[in-house]
TrEMBL record:
Residue segments, region Disordered: 49-77
Organism: Phytophthora cactorum
Protein name listed in UniProt: Uncharacterized protein
Length: 77
């Protein structure tokens, strides 16, 4: 079992620039439609990552959703 994800930069870039509809591209690359939308949103970053580091894993640099504490009274001491 691999310890880290395989290189997907070139595959992601192809999916982002594909001329197929979102549904056809998702079926072609074996991913969900949301993934294709995300790849198309990050098209410029993927283009740079494909050129600069084709053997490294690409992660979007956008901040994630804030995480809220379910029980805030347990967080205070």
């Amino acid at each position: 079992m691999p310890r880290r994800p395989k290189n997907k930069n070139k595959e992601k870039h192809k999916g982002a620039i594909s001329e197929f509809s979102t549904v056809k591209a998702a079926a072609l690359f074996n991913v969900t439609r949301a993934t294709i939308y995300r790849w198309r949103k990050d098209k410029e970053k993927l283009k740079e990552a494909t050129k600069e580091a084709p053997n490294k894993y690409f992660a979007p640099s956008e901040p994630t959703k804030p995480q809220y504490t379910l029980y805030p009274e347990l967080e205070t001491r």
